[in-house]
Amino acid sequence: MPHNPFHDTSMPMTSVKSGSGYEVVPDVYCLTVQIVNVYFVGTPDAPKDWVLIDAGMPRSEEMIINAAERRFGAGCRPRAIILTHGHFDHVGAVVELAEHWDVPVYAHPLELPYLTGAQAYPPPDPSVGGGMVATLSRFFPNDPIDLGGYVHPLPADNTLPDMPGWRWLHTPGHAYGHVSLFRDQDRALIAGDAFVTVKQESLYQVITQHKEVNGPPSYFTPDWDAARESVRTLAALKPQVAMAGHGMAMEGDALRKGLDALAVNFDVTARPQHGRYVDD
Ligand SMILES: [Zn+2]
Ligand SMILES: [Zn+2]
Q1: What is the Å distance from ligand 1's center to 102 Cα?
Q2: Ligand closest to the CA atom of residue 34
Q3: Which end of the chain has fewer CB atoms within 10 angstroms, the N or the C?
Q4: Residue 68 and residue 10: Cα distance in Å, rounded?
Q5: Rounded to two decimals, what is the model's pTM?
Q6: Ramachandran category for residue 157: left, alpha or beta (phi over 0 → left; psi -120 to 50 → alpha)
Q7: Ligand 1 centroid to residue 145 C-alpha, Å
């Protein structure tokens, strides 16, 4: 039976940074769970009015609950959980968290089959991405999870439940029902995996992370044309701060230049030259 590196705590990728967090803007807190970020949207002075964006790695529920209680107080619970998409590293603890807090989960209608046990994602493509990611991606689980009655489609009018001022945009490509969240007032963007702010090769080496705008994680992206159009849509929003599923938040000029360059050069810099979802 293959050894699953994600369950080996001696591996450096379950790094020193896992479980630590920081405030990106006053009402958005980023918590890094091993390799992936979750976001708490809300301020500690309103501990009943916050929302969790994404749900981390499998078995990270305790880490997420502890971080939430440090920020919002003991026994706190969010009003809702919102998923940017259903990949394993964004929904790992979602069933446990929805049950523990007894709160609704929202996702794009196209993601619902993967969240209700109806359908499995296409398998990851280990032939793209290079190096460690290629080696690891064969271990990535792609079994569907089943949220049962906890999961609901996002409102059709692009508003977000319990997130006044925010709206969701359909940004498919990396996943069919991938969404990004945007707040016009301060141009804050929660990008999921539509793009990431870390090098592809170091996605799973959080210790060596260096901020840089990059295309979506390639081993899971089934539609590169849609992924490119989604990056262009997000670049056109001219975000002031971007919080992605992988990597540290970026802001200002560095963000805009990086995102504009990715939008223009996407087919050269982001799209893999070969691979399961490229050649056909
Ligand atoms: Zn993903
Ligand atoms: Zn991801």
Answers
A1: 25
A2: 2
A3: N
A4: 26
A5: 0.90
A6: alpha
A7: 15
202: phi then psi, degrees, rounded to nearest 5:
-105, 15
**Ligand in nearest proximity to the CA of 56:** 2
Domain count, the chain: 1
CATH code, domain with 141: 3.60.15.10
User: Cβ(179)–Cβ(85) under 8 Å?
Assistant: yes
Rounded CA separation 210/89 (Å)? 20
Q: Which domain holds residue 165?
A: 5-279
Distance CA 167, CA 94 (A): 22
pLDDT digits (tens, 9 = 90+) for 110-154: 999 999 999 988 777 767 655 556 566 666 776 779 999 999 999
Please give the distance, rounded to the nearest whole angstrom, from the Cα atom of residue 45 to the centre of ligand 2: 30
Distance 246 CA to ligand 1 centre (A): 9
